[in-house]
Every structure is written in C-alpha cells, then in structure tokens.
C-alpha cells in the first residue's frame, strides 16, 4: 500500500508552510495547496490520505467542499482547521463526517492525533473497497442462471423450491449451486449471504450484469 499523504488546503502561506514542516517532521508525505481548485487540479493520491482543510477559503469554502465530496460519494477524511469557528459551523462539519474541527491556535498533538484517526479510517475504507472489488469480480464470473440461483439461495429457498421457481430439475439446481459456491470462493451459506449484501443483491431477486 502507498505511503500516507496529508493534503493541507489553507490560503495562508505561512500556515501552510508551518503545517507542512510539522507533518514532514513526523514522516508524512505532504501536499500544500492554497484552494479547493488546486486540489481538483492535482487530484487525490492513490494511498491512504487525510485532508487538513481550512474552513474559510477563496472561492469554494471548506464546508461547501465537504458537502460536494459527500454528494459525489467521494471518501476523504477531513480535519477542519479555522481561526473563526463557531458552534453551528463545527456542528455542520462533524455531522458531515469530519474527523475533527480544530480552532486556531491548536496544539500540534491534537492535529496529529486527528490525522492518525483520519488515516485509520481511510485505510479501512481502501481495504473494504479492495474486498468489494474482489467479490464483484467473482460475481461477474457467474452465468445469468447462476446469478438467479444465488439470489434464491441467499433468500433461504431450498433446492426443490428453486427448481420449481426456475422450472428446472433439482439436480440442475444443485449443479448451479455448487458452481456458485465455487466461483464465489466460499463453502458457507452465511458468507455467501454477506457477499450478496455487499453487492446489494436483494434476496430472491435474480441479478444481471450491468
């Protein structure tokens, strides 16, 4: 996995450089940016990332950017920093999923602690996405009939019932069921059900490959 990267977005160059020096001193890779627009141009690094984001920025504010990320379903842990914070602002940030809301001046350790929490959250998300991609690839290898059988199996239907549902023999269902378990890489029905849940497959509703 790539090294962790901390992205600092603050329009005050002195604060950017001070934060950059602090974060580099404890071993982080750091990107220093002056605006949300700069971030959109540079993009997010591949590995674990935490965003240290000033609330008040030229153009799009930090809080508005947080809302945009949420709407676009982009996972990025955020530690807000501000010299002009108030309670409604902090409540909005935390309800939006921020890791922490720090008012300047803050202790270096408070910032570092929040960043470590954010990175742990991002690492967990990355691992979950990798696991989901593996399950999705296995599901994509199933034939349309095997997907039908899988949906009915995780719904708790017995082989005989599935045979009636699909208009095939019970032996045929057993063959398809065996293939499903083999291709999905599991021998456990509860695990197969968890996979179906991750893929958001509604039990009993056959799925097609989109």
UniProtKB/TrEMBL annotation:
Domain of life: Bacteria
Record-level Gene Ontology MF annotations: DNA binding
Pfam family for this entry, one: GerE
Modified-residue entries (4-aspartylphosphate), positions: 54
Protein name: LuxR family two component transcriptional regulator
Keywords: DNA-binding, Phosphoprotein, Transcription, Transcription regulation
Domain annotation HTH luxR-type: ranges: 135-200
GO terms of biological process kind: phosphorelay signal transduction system; regulation of DNA-templated transcription
């Amino acid at each position: 996995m790539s090294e962790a990267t901390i992205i600092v977005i603050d329009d005050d160059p002195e604060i950017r450089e001070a934060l950059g020096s602090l974060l580099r001193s404890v071993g982080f890779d750091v990107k220093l940016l002056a605006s949300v627009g700069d971030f959109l141009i540079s993009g997010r690094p591949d590995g674990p990332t935490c965003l240290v984001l000033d609330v008040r920025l030229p153009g799009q504010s930090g809080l508005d950017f947080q809302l945009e990320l949420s709407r676009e379903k982009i996972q990025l842990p955020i530690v807000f920093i501000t010299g002009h914070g108030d309670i409604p602002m902090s409540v909005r940030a935390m309800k939006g999923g921020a890791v922490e809301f720090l008012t300047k001046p803050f202790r270096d350790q408070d910032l570092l602690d929040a960043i470590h929490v954010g990175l742990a959250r991002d690492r967990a998300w990355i691992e979950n996405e990798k696991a989901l991609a593996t399950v999705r690839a296995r599901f994509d290898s199933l034939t349309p009939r095997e997907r039908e059988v899988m949906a009915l199996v995780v719904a708790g239907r017995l082989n005989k019932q599935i045979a009636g549902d699909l208009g095939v023999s019970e032996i045929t269902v057993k063959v398809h069921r065996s293939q499903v378990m083999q291709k999905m890489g599991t021998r456990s029905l509860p695990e197969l059900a968890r996979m179906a849940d991750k893929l958001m497959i509604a039990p009993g509703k056959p799925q097609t490959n989109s």
